[in-house]
Amino acid sequence: MKLRLALVVLSCLISVVTGLVLSRSNATPVSSKTRPRPLVGLSLDTLKEERWQRDRDNFVKKTGELGADVKVQSANGDDVRQVNDVQSLITEGVDVIVIAPHNGDAMAKAVNLAHDAGIPVLSYDRLIRNCDLDLYMTFDNFRVGELQAQYLVDALAKAGPGKKRIIRLYGAKTDNNAVVFKAGQDKVLKPLIESGAIEVVHEDWVDDWKPENAKKVANAGINQAGHNFDAILASNDGTAGGAIQALIEEGLAGKVLVTGQDADLAACQRIIAGTQSMTIYKPLRNLADQAAEYAVKLAKRRPVIASGSYDNGQIQVPTVLLDVIPVTKDNLRETVIKDGFHTADEVFGNASK
Hints:
This protein has helices at residues 30-33, 50-65, 79-92, 108-116, 141-158, 176-195, 211-225, 237-249, 265-273, 284-299, 333-337, 344-348, and strands at 4-12, 15-23, 39-44, 69-74, 96-100, 121-124, 135-139, 164-169, 198-204, 231-234, 257-258, 279-281, 304-306, 308-311, 316-322, 325-327.
């Protein structure tokens, strides 16, 4: 039966916080009558990147602790395959589907198919657009972009006066997060670009977030700017890695600021080596654990409350946002390593002894 969203107003002293509560039909799914534990379907864009492997492992572990099972599907960056994966999960009779979409627009079809079968859908980390989505859980992606750009601006200011020239790598156009990262970056950079303090010598989107495509964008920027530029604003660690390969070929690695995101092990190692300047640490376990908790509630048809909302082009989707942390060489131990995201030996090698 079609989902129903109810608006709940939460009052605290003189502040009013609006939350969105999801409730579904009281009808019991056929699948849950024959299974002792709820079954959660997890449809991932890819498992080729370290980050998504961590999400899967954390989500499956937490869901199991909560008394539910998980069926995992990975689409390897293929929209048609991901829709088919969701259809397979529907056929299997899962009680809820969690989707990290490759293409936020293409997966609206999958949400509609799930709803036709009476199955709620949680959009994980990336927004699914133009559909009656039940819940969206992600990190504060606008803040990610702000922190990346602010780090770059502050670091360039310390380097001395004069106009600074940068190359920008935006991520995949098909990923709504890439658009939000850019918006956060723009908030910081726009006044400086308009005043002439910063010049963007080259900018482009990176298809599918692939490092090899990022390298092509960086190469194009270097061909245009020569060696006369100061920084590369890369939206994640994969694109940063591709850009750094281009810098290595030009003898510029370590001489140009490079941003990133995800705190991948390779990126943390590059930060220690000095070829990457910073990354954004997103505590993936927090996201996976909370998503698992919400998914199990949805599977059991219990109401779910979200403190925020996000316009996906069709509705204001109930949304849960998690905080992010900028990481440099100075605070790697206090963040990434302290949380157990990576070990000191992995990041520092023999230098950690």
